[in-house]
């Protein structure tokens, strides 16, 4: 009765949890869709401006190659050279800079400013690289107007390919601010424009200290190398707020637009719904749990009594090993299983040497402690779930080892004897009596063999060990047809039988 009550509570909780989880996923999907739409809109606007600026730069580069340009008057040369500059939106002046960094042509003035630009990052990039494409600079302050801007430049080359200078234009950061500030993403939303190397060109809300910094360690760059657009959740490096980020690359340019929404803002309404449903779930489950607890207590009392009776029926009270009744039942089962799988079954019959003399000389409590030490040595070395150690009677013990050869069983017998010597070494009274006689037998069950034949063989070997002076291990002489085969001699069908027998054995409780 307890189980149906608990299952009812779990089923109800599972259904409510699934509904809440689906609602959360839907909320996240809507937020991702909105942010993706905003990011794509910003990407398209920025891409148009960048393309127009790049087109203007290419026009100047082409015009510089016109024959007779130097023979024109300054006014006419300026008109011819910068005839494409009018197509760009929101540009500053366009400049032609020679290989020394000196401005040679200005799109807005006949007399170029007397400034040297050789220390600018765009100049050094083009000087040191033969990359012919568009380069986008770090955010910088104009030496002519003092305004913050981002420069766009292309390399000029001599006919032999050597560096000839730079053709340059720029876009004011005020343009990006005007574009980003109208985006509605909640009180903790952000819009970031960065280069693909992590340099921030603009962020809204605007933070001057963040402009020009690197966000290479942000979660963005764990995703961007795998896909040019996508979304992820991460803690922002700028302010530590957990956000849902949607990013996309601006065309083929080295620019990325990142739109971030605070997860607290995204899931605010969902949390209110979840708390209301959760409170109802808690109230209903509390009543169910109280009923389940009451039923559990009643059934626990009965189960405890049944477990106690079960243990008393299978465990030897003094040693903690299996009792003889449980041993006999397990031996019969393992014998039948081994007969089907044609696997060997080994048995150790163990006797504490001169135990009666020791018990009479030192008393029953000392004798009990010695028997407990023997049992502890057996338990410490019998480790497989299928193996079982038992008190067979008085000072005699048995160890059943399914699927074990005679040699392996003999090795385990030696380990038990060595363990007992070590275990009793600290007790002066037990030290001289830590001696065991062990008989070992291993048989492959057959139609003509019974499990009592295994007991008889091991018992015969035990008495042979006693006859030969005690404190030793003797191996039973088995018939040739019953010798344990090598491990490699089993066929594939026998291996499959072993596997099925293991599954059957796993349902039996071992002590």
List keywords for this structure.
alpha+beta, 5-stranded antiparallel beta sheet, 15 strands, 20% strand, disordered C terminus
Describe the structure.
By secondary structure, this protein is an alpha+beta fold. It has 14 helices and 15 strands. Strand 6 (190-195) and strand 7 form a beta hairpin. It starts with a helix and ends in a 6-residue tail after the last helix.
Topology diagram in text:
Elements: H1 2-63, H2 74-81, E1 95-98, E2 103-106, H3 121-128, E3 135-141, E4 148-157, E5 163-172, H4 173-180, E6 190-195, E7 200-204, H5 220-223, E8 229-235, E9 242-249, E10 255-262, H6 263-266, H7 268-314, H8 324-341, E11 345-352, H9 355-362, H10 364-381, E12 388-393, E13 396-402, H11 406-423, H12 428-431, E14 436-443, H13 451-467, E15 473-475, H14 492-505
Parallel strand pairs: 14-15
Antiparallel strand pairs: 1-2, 1-5, 3-4, 4-5, 6-7, 6-10, 8-9, 9-10, 11-13, 11-14, 12-13
Helix pairs in contact: 1-7, 8-14, 9-10, 10-11
- Approximately how much beta-strand content do the residues carry? 15-25%
Please report the total strand number as a whole number: 15
pLDDT < 50 stretches: 479-511
Strand order of the largest sheet: 2-1-5-4-3
Gap between N and C termini, in Å?
30 Å
The number of distinct helices, counting runs of at least 4 residues, comes to 14
What's the quaternary structure here? single chain
Order of helices and strands: HHEEHEEEHEEHEEEHHHEHHEEHHEHEH
Radius of gyration: 44 Å
Helix-and-strand structural type: alpha+beta
How would a crystallographer describe the biggest sheet? 5 strands, antiparallel
Overall 3D form: elongated
Mean pLDDT: 85
């Amino acid at each position: 009765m307890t189980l149906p009550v608990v299952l009812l509570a779990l089923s109800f909780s599972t259904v409510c949890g699934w509904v809440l989880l689906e609602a959360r996923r839907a909320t996240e999907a809507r937020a991702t869709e909105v942010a993706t739409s905003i990011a794509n809109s910003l990407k398209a606007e920025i891409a148009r401006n960048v393309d127009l600026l790049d087109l203007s730069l290419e026009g100047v580069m082409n015009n510089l190659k016109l024959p007779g340009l130097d023979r024109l008057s300054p006014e006419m040369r300026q008109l011819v050279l910068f005839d494409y500059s009018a197509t760009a939106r929101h540009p500053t002046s366009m400049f032609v800079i020679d290989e020394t960094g000196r401005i040679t042509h200005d799109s807005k003035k006949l007399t170029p400013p007397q400034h040297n630009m050789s220390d600018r990052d765009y100049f050094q990039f083009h000087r040191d690289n033969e990359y012919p494409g568009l380069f986008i600079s770090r955010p910088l302050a104009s030496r002519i107007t003092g305004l913050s801007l981002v420069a766009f430049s292309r390399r000029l080359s001599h006919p032999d390919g050597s560096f000839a200078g730079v053709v340059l234009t720029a876009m004011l950061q005020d343009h990006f601010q005007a574009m980003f500030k109208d985006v509605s993403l909640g009180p903790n939303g952000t819009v970031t424009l960065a280069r693909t190397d992590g340099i921030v060109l603009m962020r809204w809300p605007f933070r001057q200290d963040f402009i020009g910094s690197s966000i290479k360690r942000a979660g963005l760059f764990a995703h961007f190398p795998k896909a040019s657009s996508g979304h992820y959740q991460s803690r922002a490096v700028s302010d530590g707020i957990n956000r849902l980020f949607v990013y996309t690359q601006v065309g083929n340019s080295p620019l990325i637009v990142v739109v971030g929404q605070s997860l607290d803002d995204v899931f605010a309404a969902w949390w209110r719904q979840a708390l209301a449903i959760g409170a109802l779930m808690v109230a209903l489950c509390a009543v169910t749990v109280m009923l389940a607890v009451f039923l559990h207590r009643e059934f626990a009392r009965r189960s405890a009594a049944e477990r106690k009776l079960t243990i008393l029926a299978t465990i030897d009270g003094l040693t903690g090993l299996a009792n003889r009744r449980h041993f006999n039942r397990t031996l019969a089962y393992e014998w039948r299983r081994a007969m089907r799988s044609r696997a060997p079954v080994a048995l150790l019959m163990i006797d504490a040497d001169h135990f009666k003399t020791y018990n009479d000389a030192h008393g029953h409590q000392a004798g009990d402690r010695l028997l407990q030490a023997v049992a502890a040595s057996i338990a410490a070395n019998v480790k497989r779930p299928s193996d079982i150690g038992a008190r067979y009677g008085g000072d005699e013990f048995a160890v059943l080892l399914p699927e074990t050869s005679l040699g392996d069983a003999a090795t385990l017998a030696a380990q038990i004897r060595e363990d007992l010597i070590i275990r009793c070494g600290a007790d002066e009274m037990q030290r001289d009596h830590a001696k065991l006689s062990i008989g070992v037998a291993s048989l492959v069950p057959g139609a003509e063999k019974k499990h009592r034949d295994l007991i008889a063989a091991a018992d015969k070997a035990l008495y042979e060990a006693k006859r030969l002076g005690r404190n030793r291990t003797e191996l039973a002489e088995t018939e040739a047809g019953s010798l344990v085969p090598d491990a490699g001699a089993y066929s594939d069908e026998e291996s499959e039988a072993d596997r099925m027998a293991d599954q059957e054995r796993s349902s039996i409780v071992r002590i």
